[in-house]
Structures are given as structure tokens and as C-alpha cells.
Amino acid sequence: MEYSISITEKSINLILSGSPSSQRLLTALSEVSSELKKISIPILFINGELLDKPFILQDRFYIFTCLKELNIDKATKIVIQSKDDTANRDLLEMMAKNRGWLLKHFNSKNLAERFIDKIHNPSIYIK
After folding, report:
1. Which fold has domain 2-121?
2. What is the residue-wise DSSP string for the chain?
3. What are the domain boundaries of the chain?
4. Which pTM does this prediction carry?
């Protein structure tokens, strides 16, 4: 699995491609953990759209158990975009919520970016 990291004023972006690897993802998360602490509203955007297939369920559980060890704070909002089906997206969000994380999972980059904007500018979206 290959990954690239970019930092914007609104989020830290982690773009994944190739065959999923939990160890490579943990390496990438380790690299971004110190940068997340520097941001006033820490948002990690993980774009898995270019992955060959989604991570298996066991890898997802394993990754969540390692976040604390990587010094990623639970104040970090995690936004994921991937081609996962609805059931897997809902399961991942529920799993994260049960462990005290704020995670939103989208299948569209547009929706993910809109959610990030909403975190930074909530007054724009008040009806």
C-alpha cells in the first residue's frame, strides 16, 4: 500500500492507494500524529478511494486499538472516504463511537469535504 500525506488549513489528508495494509496505515498514522496536535481543530481525512479493496474487519478493529498508542487524541475528528458499502460504513462509525472517537465515513469526496467545512464553519449550515 502506498500513501501520501498533505496538510491543509482545515485537515491533514492521508491518501491511500494499492492493496490495503494495516501496518502501512499505522506507519502513516504515526507520521501524522504530531501534526494533528498542532491544529486547533484536529481533523484527519483518510481517502481510501484508490485502494484496490476495503480493509478487512479485523484490520479495522486492530487499527482502532492502536490509535491511542500512536498518541492520536480522541479529540481528533476522523473523516474517511472509501468505496465501502453502507453496512460496512455504518459498522465502522458505530465501532468508533463505541470507543469514544468521532468518525464519519462517506463514499463521496464532496460529502466528506462538506462535512469538514461544516466542522470549521457550523454557522454556514444552520437552517
Report:
1. Transcription Regulator spoIIAA (3.30.750)
2. -EEEEEE-SS-EEEEEEES--HHHHHHHHHHHHHHHHHSSS-EEEEEEEEESSPPPHHHHHHHHHHTTTTT--TT-EEEEE----HHHHHHHHHHHHHTT-EEEEES-HHHHHHHHHHHH-GGGG--
3. 2-121
4. 0.91
* 115 contacts: CB under 8 Å, gap ≥ 6: 79, 104, 106
Closest CA to 26 of 78, 58, 67: 67
Residue tagged 495494509 (cell numbers): 21
Query: What pLDDT digit, counting tens, does each position of 48-94 carry?
Result: 999 999 898 889 889 988 999 999 999 999 999 998 888 888 998 99
